[in-house]
């Protein structure tokens, strides 16, 4: 029994040893395969954890068609329409989302945990029975949001590689068989030793014991047949299990090789994709060191991968920016959640830009965070575009809300989708609705008439714009509305309708008022006492009123329309055609008077005003003419001229010296000086003072006047201010003459003095007195005579100096004299019109009175008289106002020319005043004055100085420059250069010879000596510009071309600047 027990024990121990060897080999194979699988999977996980929507990819080294055929067998659906691209020589299919689900369901080993956010384990399966064989790798990747996984599906096949793997399987099979046989042999040897040799040994021992007389020894029983069969069966079983394990090991080795190749290809594909992406991609470890950077990131930093790997943000950015990036990485690592933000990115040496940044955590095979992955891309253009879009939308909404028109937009369901503030106010005013957006227009505008809603259904069908203009009664108020309904068409369908409502009630009322005004204007023109007509640039008369027809004596308006303003012989002979041509050529108004004999033999003087009417381009399109019969007034004017001539003759030829003055007062209205406005020839002979003293103060002419006659200014001031006449005698020491003076005032602030020389009488009286005392005072007289002689010599020297100043002053007074001469002529026209209108009104009033007294007056006569009276008084008032404006303009210029006061004034208006004052001189010529000066230029200076400057320059051009020139042109250009006023005065006269140019500003230098020229005009201009205005003046001239003066003066006088400071 013991031997049998031991036999069985040895047999079982052998079996256990064989099983242990087989299990050990299987475990080694499983461990090798599993470890190899983990390493490959970890490499895939580390490489494919990128954000994005990569759904699935098929990778086969065949054509796109073969690739699609293989995928068709997997998903059971056509994938031809899937996107096909080439990456490193492989065909890549990006499958649709629904196809991926079908593909995954074909795998029986599908892990349902893949659909969880924590899914990270890949699935790899080999399909050896497919033709061609292939390996499928499915790897779940966490999505950008950290929730929805994205699957990376990879297919790999290679027929040669599969054949190689089969060879490897056969080699492994033979090796396994050899190992199996070897192990089985060892087991059988051990069994033989335990079963045969041991028993044989024991048998020999028994035989030896029996030979030695040990009868009790027994031979061990032989192995029974069932034990041998059982042993053979167990050995066969072990061999079969060993073969199965070897086959399984071989299969796992083949699959491991394929998986390694698949994962290597997958790694190359992922690396190629990452390197080719335009986004900047990098990964960092937990210490913030770069472990991977793609080519885009390297180009951005201008460094190579080897220069970036191992560095951190502190090596690339400023400490502040690096700290910020470090905080973001720490947040991702701590929370385990992706981070998405927009920030301003800066790279040293490059311009900063805005980037969209996504940072996600990286996990290792144990599920622990091993670092961070970052992707960012330039969104500067998108950000600018969004900002531009936002600004455009803001501008659009602001513009829409700023419009006065009510605007709203409806959709095909007639709901309001957009409206502006004007519509809200409009609807609240008429219907009281406050909520509009989202409502139907039929609900919003319930109180409006039906025609307000017309056309919307039509527009949705025809796609054509509709404009409605209607008069409606809304809440008892009659309004005129202009409604524009504009379709917004997209893809041949009306998506929206824009409605613009414009309240044109005021426009309609205005049109009505304009129509009525036109009728009144036409009636006024037709019944005006002046002839009014308009004609085009060809001279054809377009319209003419009744008075215009009467002036020409034409039988009808049609007859007047036959006239041509350019070619009619009577108009050419009268000079009217030439004036019309001048108005057309220059574009400036023309005022003239001529003697006219019309085609219908009516004769008389006519005064006419030609006004050009210009279009938007500044071209003359029509000319309007205002004409009056000047015959009667011409007679009155001639009488006035004769009277003026007589007055001038008396003024000039009277024996007594006469001077006209204006008193100058201080702030307390006390007289402090007086200005010479006019003197006659006798005054010049008596005093030796010439016309140049006009416009000057007495203290300028004789600075020491207060020392000689301290009460003289006070006496004259009392006369000018109180109007009381006075007369006295005094000895005027500067002249050494006795005068008898009579002073009276014709207007407050002005006075006239009449001087008689009584020196001879006074000297006679003094001589008689001296003769009576001659004996007693001979010595004293001789002494006095010597003293007087010495004093006379001193006074002569002083007189010479003063005479120069007086001559300068007289030049100014000469310009003012021209103003006085032109006053009567300029105010004749408005005063004459007023007189004519008043005379006509008086005559009509007498006629009306007679009709009233004779009880023959009718209502229509009275109404006609009232209309006539209104028109006449209006004409009288307008012309009197014009005369007052002219007088005020003359007074202003005269005052400024004789005043040294500084004030603020607009230069253009002042130049116009000066030109009006010179109109009497300019109107007798055909010369043109063109002023180019902005109306906004304002000066703080001495207006009188500018008046004297422009007057002298224009007079100089008229007298010297335009001598023997029929039509010249003067241009005054005014501009501002920094803080200087630049005046360019030029004429196209005969110019100045080069030898005269250096002397033109010298006093008393003139080329008209003996012909009325004093030589002080330009000297006065030079003195005013350089001394008073603190500026400078230059002159250039070319003979027979013209002369140009450049004047530069400060915008603010230095004295005014001191006062401001």
TrEMBL record:
Domain Histidine kinase stretches: 822-1053
Extent of the signal sequence: none
KW Zinc (keyword) present: no
Subcellular location: Membrane
Membrane-spanning ranges: 9-32, 169-192
Top-tier EC class: transferase
Principal localisation: membrane
The keyword Hydrolase is assigned to this record: no
PROSITE patterns, per database record: HAMP, HIS_KIN, PAC, PAS
EC numbers for this chain: 2.7.13.3
GO CC, one annotated term: membrane
Stretches assigned to coiled coil: 772-806
Residue intervals of the HAMP domain: 194-247
Protein's name according to its UniProt entry: histidine kinase
């Amino acid at each position: 029994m013991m031997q049998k027990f031991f036999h069985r024990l040895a047999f079982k121990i052998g079996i256990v040893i064989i099983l242990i060897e087989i299990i050990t080999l299987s475990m080694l194979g499983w461990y090798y395969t599993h470890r190899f699988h983990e390493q490959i999977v970890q490499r895939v996980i580390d490489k494919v954890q990128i954000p994005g929507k990569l759904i699935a990819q098929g990778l086969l080294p065949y054509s796109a068609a073969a690739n699609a055929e293989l995928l068709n067998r997997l998903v059971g659906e056509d994938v031809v329409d899937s996107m096909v691209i080439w990456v490193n020589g492989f065909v890549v299919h990006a499958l649709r989302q629904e196809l991926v689900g079908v593909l995954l369901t074909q795998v029986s080993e599908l892990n349902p945990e893949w659909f969880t956010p924590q899914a990270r384990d890949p699935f790899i399966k080999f399909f050896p029975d497919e033709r061609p064989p292939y390996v499928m790798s499915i790897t779940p990747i966490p999505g950008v949001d950290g929730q929805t996984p994205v699957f990376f599906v990879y297919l790999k096949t290679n027929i040669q590689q599969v054949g190689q793997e089969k060879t490897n399987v056969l080699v492994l099979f033979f090796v396994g068989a050899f190992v199996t046989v070897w192990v089985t042999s060892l087991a059988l040897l051990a069994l033989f030793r335990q079963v045969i040799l041991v028993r044989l040994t024991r048998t020999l021992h028994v035989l030896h014991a029996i030979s030695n007389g040990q009868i009790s020894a027994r031979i061990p029983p032989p192995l029974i047949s069932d034990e041998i069969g059982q042993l053979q069966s167990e050995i066969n079983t072990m061999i079969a299990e060993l073969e199965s394990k070897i086959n399984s090991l071989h299969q796992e080795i083949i699959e491991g090789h394929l998986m390694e190749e698949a994962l290597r290809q997958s790694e190359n594909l992922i690396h190629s994709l990452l390197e080719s992406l335009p986004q900047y991609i990098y990964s960092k470890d937990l210490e913030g060191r770069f472990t991977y950077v793609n080519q885009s990131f390297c180009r951005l930093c201008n460094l190579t991968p080897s220069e970036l790997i191992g560095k951190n943000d502190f090596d690339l950015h400023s400490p502040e920016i690096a700290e910020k990036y470090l905080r973001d990485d720490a947040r991702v690592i701590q929370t385990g959640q992706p981070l998405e933000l927009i920030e301003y990115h800066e790279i040293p040496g490059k311009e900063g830009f805005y980037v969209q940044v996504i940072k996600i955590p990286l996990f290792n095979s144990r599920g622990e965070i091993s670092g961070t992955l970052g992707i960012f891309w330039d969104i500067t253009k998108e950000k600018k575009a969004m900002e531009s879009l936002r600004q455009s939308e803001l501008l659009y909404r602001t513009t829409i809300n700023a419009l006065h028109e009510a605007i709203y937009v409806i959709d095909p369901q007639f709901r309001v989708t957009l409206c502006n503030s004007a519509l809200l106010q409009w609807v609240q005013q008429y219907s009281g609705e406050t909520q509009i957006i989202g409502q139907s227009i039929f609900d919003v505008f319930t109180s409006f008439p039906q025609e307000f809603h017309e056309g919307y259904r039509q527009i949705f069908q025809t796609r054509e714009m509709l404009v409605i203009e209607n008069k409606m009664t809304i809440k008892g108020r009659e309004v005129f509305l202009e409604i524009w309904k504009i379709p917004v068409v997209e893809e041949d369908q009306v998506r929206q309708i824009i409605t613009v409502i414009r309240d044109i009630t005021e426009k309609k009322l205005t049109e009505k008022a304009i129509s009525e005004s036109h009728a009144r204007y036409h009636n006024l023109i037709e019944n005006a006492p002046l002839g009014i007509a308009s004609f085009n640039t060809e001279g054809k008369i377009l319209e003419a009123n009744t008075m215009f027809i009467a002036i020409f004596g034409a039988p009808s308006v049609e007859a007047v329309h036959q006239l041509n303003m350019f070619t009619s012989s009577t108009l050419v002979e009268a000079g009217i055609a030439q004036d019309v041509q001048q108005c057309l050529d220059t574009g400036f108004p023309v005022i003239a008077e001529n003697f006219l004999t019309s085609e219908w033999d009516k004769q008389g003087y006519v005064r006419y005003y030609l006004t050009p009417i210009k279009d938007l381009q500044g071209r003359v399109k029509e000319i309007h003419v205002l004409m009056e019969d000047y015959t009667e007034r011409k007679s009155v004017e001639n009488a006035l001229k004769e009277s003026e001539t007589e007055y001038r003759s008396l003024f000039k030829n009277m024996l007594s010296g006469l001077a006209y003055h204006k008193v100058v007062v201080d702030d307390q209205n006390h007289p402090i000086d007086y200005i010479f406005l006019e003197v006659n020839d006798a005054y010049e002979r008596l005093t030796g003072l010439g016309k140049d003293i006009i416009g000057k103060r007495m203290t300028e002419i004789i600075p020491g006047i207060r020392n000689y006659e301290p009460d003289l200014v006070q006496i004259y001031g009392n006369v000018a201010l109180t109007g009381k006449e006075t007369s006295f005698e005094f000895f005027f020491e500067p002249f050494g003459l006795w005068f008898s003076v009579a002073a009276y005032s014709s207007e407050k602030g002005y006075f006239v003095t009449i001087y008689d020389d009584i020196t001879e009488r006074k000297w006679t009286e003094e001589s008689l007195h001296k003769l009576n005392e001659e004996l007693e005072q001979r010595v004293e007289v001789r002494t006095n005579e010597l003293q007087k002689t010495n004093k006379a010599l001193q006074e002569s020297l002083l007189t010479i100096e003063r005479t120069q100043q007086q001559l300068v002053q007289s030049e100014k007074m000469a310009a003012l004299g021209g103003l006085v001469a032109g006053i009567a002529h300029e105010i004749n026209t408005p005063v004459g019109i007023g007189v004519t209108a008043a005379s006509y009104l008086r005559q009509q009033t007498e006629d009306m009175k007679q009709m009233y007294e004779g009880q023959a007056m009718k209502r229509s006569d009275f109404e006609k008289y009232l209309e006539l009276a209104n028109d006449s008084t209006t004409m009288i008032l307008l012309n009197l106002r014009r005369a007052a404006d002219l007088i005020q303009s003359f007074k202003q210029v005269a005052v400024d020319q004789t005043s040294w006061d500084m004030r603020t004034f607009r230069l253009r208006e002042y130049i116009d005043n000066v030109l009006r004052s010179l109109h009497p001189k300019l109107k007798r010529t055909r010369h043109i004055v063109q002023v180019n000066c902005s109306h906004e230029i304002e000066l703080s200076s001495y207006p009188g100085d500018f008046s004297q400057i422009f007057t002298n320059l224009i007079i100089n051009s008229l007298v010297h420059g335009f001598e023997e020139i029929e039509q010249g042109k003067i241009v005054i250009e005014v501009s501002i250069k920094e803080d200087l006023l630049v005046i360019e005065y030029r004429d196209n006269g005969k110019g100045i010879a080069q030898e005269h140019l250096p002397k033109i500003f010298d006093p008393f230098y003139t080329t008209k000596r003996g012909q009325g020229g004093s030589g002080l005009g330009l000297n006065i201009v030079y003195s005013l510009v350089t001394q008073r205005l603190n500026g400078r003046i230059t002159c250039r001239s070319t003979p027979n071309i013209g002369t140009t003066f450049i004047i530069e003066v400060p915008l603010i006088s230095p004295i005014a600047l001191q006062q401001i400071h």
